[in-house]
From TrEMBL:
This is NADH dehydrogenase (ubiquinone) complex I, assembly factor 6. InterPro entries: Isoprenoid_synthase_dom_sf, Squ/phyt_synthse. Involved in the assembly of mitochondrial NADH:ubiquinone oxidoreductase complex (complex I) at early stages. May play a role in the biogenesis of complex I subunit MT-ND1. It comes from Gasterosteus aculeatus aculeatus (three-spined stickleback). It is found in: Mitochondrion inner membrane. One of its GO terms (cellular component) is mitochondrial inner membrane. Keywords: Membrane, Mitochondrion, Mitochondrion inner membrane, Signal, Transit peptide. It comes from the Eukaryota. Belongs to the NDUFAF6 family. One of its GO terms (biological process) is mitochondrial respiratory chain complex I assembly. Residues 1-20 form the signal peptide.
Length: 418
């Protein structure tokens, strides 16, 4: 019974010390770098929970201070106390046996001794410490840059990335930052030639990333880290760049199938990479990802219609517009006629079909893969709101973000559904 109480208390401590991506603050131990697991096993003796918690806190306060005393970061991966024997496992070296005698489990309490700290406090030359500190600072700046970029440009992707497991969270933000960088090229350049030059930069950057020579650019550095950690497929990255490069022509899609092809090569490829970062390779998950990517591309085209119309651009499929007799000028002036609503209805219906088709594989898709599909919540929310607006894509209610979407994403991640 006391063992159960100890686990509950320490689980609460873990939740309390979680790294806050929202404000960027770091509590006692930043759990994005430190994963501390307490396992206190008691046999035939009562455990004082409050004293046990105080002892754990005191020890790890002193361990965290060691980082500033001699320049060495201690990456404590696990601390196991099993009937008096202690194993302290750090990154690259271990302390156990006689050296572990500095910490003892006595009457359910952890007692610290100076011998443990002398063993852990190894001297690092100042030059090496400065080099390591500079590299760590650059990595932190790159991570913060990607996080802020995704948060400002792809909020639903930002929220869904935070709900991923810790080992895939940073890689997801890097992939989404890479996608945002490519997506904003079209709107940030005045000439197609400049856009082609930026696309060529990213093609060269991907090649250099897979040669372990990433360029000194924040997104490239984070993408290199994700590729090295998860062995991501280069073909998906290059396919996103190639399709974005074709889209620089700045013309409307000829038909709905062309829009689906564009969505498959961009959005679906991104989801394939997210599945790889989660360590999943499943044909049913890939099939569902293909349809979710198509639905996302279609919905994105609909959501961006008011913005593009304000810049005298229309990218909705021309065959659907011609079928209902709607011209590009009708969208440019923000028309709300029935023919304009009919075009929106047909395009939105196709996105809904892809969502339903993706959900038909839910029984065969691994539960862990559903975390890569959390953006279906935002897609479904927009389709429902545009339906309530009678498919008026220029309705003022569609300009506001639904504040309940992050909470709905959390529920989906907890239920392992999409």
């Amino acid at each position: 019974m006391y063992r159960i109480f100890a686990s509950l208390i320490l689980e609460a401590v873990w939740l309390d010390f979680r790294y806050c991506y929202e404000c960027g603050s770091s509590p006692l131990i930043c759990l994005s770098k430190y994963c501390v697991i307490f396992n206190v096993i008691t046999t035939h003796r009562r455990v004082c929970i409050s004293k046990c918690f105080t002892a754990h806190r005191k020890i790890f306060q002193q361990l965290s201070l060691n980082k500033t005393n001699d320049g060495r970061e201690l990456y404590i991966r696990a601390l196991s106390v099993v009937r008096g024997s202690v194993f302290v496992v750090t990154q690259g070296w271990k302390v156990k046996g006689n050296m572990a005698a500095g910490i003892s489990a006595k009457r359910g309490l952890l007692r610290s001794e100076p011998s443990l700290y002398r063993a852990l406090r190894r001297h690092v030359p100042p030059s090496r410490a400065r080099t390591r500190g500079a590299a760590s600072s650059a990595a932190a700046d790159s991570q913060a840059y990607c996080l802020q970029l995704v948060r400002s440009r792809d909020y639903e992707g930002y929220v869904s990335s935070l709900l991923l497991p810790e080992e895939a969270r940073r890689s997801s933000l890097a992939l989404r930052a890479f996608n945002v960088e490519l997506a904003q090229v079209k709107d940030s350049v005045s000439q197609k030639t400049i856009g082609l030059m930026r696309m060529q930069f990213w093609k060269t950057a991907v090649e250099e990333i897979y040669r372990d020579e990433p360029p000194k650019q924040p997104v490239s550095g984070e993408l290199w880290r994700a590729v090295r950690k998860h062995e991501l497929t280069k073909r998906w990255l290059l396919r996103i760049i190639t399709e974005r490069e074709k889209d620089l022509d700045d013309r409307a899609y000829r038909n709905l199938q062309e829009l689906e092809t564009y969505s498959e090569n961009t959005q679906s490829s991104l989801i394939y990479l997210l599945l790889e970062s989660l360590g999943l390779k499943n044909v049913h998950a890939d099939h569902a990802a293909s349809h979710i990517g198509k639905a996302q591309g279609i919905v994105t085209c609909l959501r961006a219609t008011p913005y593009h119309s304000s810049r005298r651009r229309v990218y909705l499929p021309m065959d659907v517009c011609m079928l209902h007799g709607a011209s590009q000028e009708d969208f440019i002036r923000g028309g709300r006629e029935q023919k304009v609503r009919d075009v929106v209805y047909d395009v939105a219906s196709q996105a809904h079909v892809h969502l339903e088709h993706a959900r038909s594989f839910s029984n065969n898709v691994p539960p862990a893969a559903t975390l890569a599909f959390l953006q279906t919540v935002a897609l479904e929310d927009y389709l429902q709101r545009v339906r309530r607006a009678d498919f008026d894509v220029f309705h003022p209610s569609l300009k506001n973000r639904n504040p309940l979407v992050p909470f709905q994403m959390y529920l989906r991640s907890w239920r392992k559904t999409y």
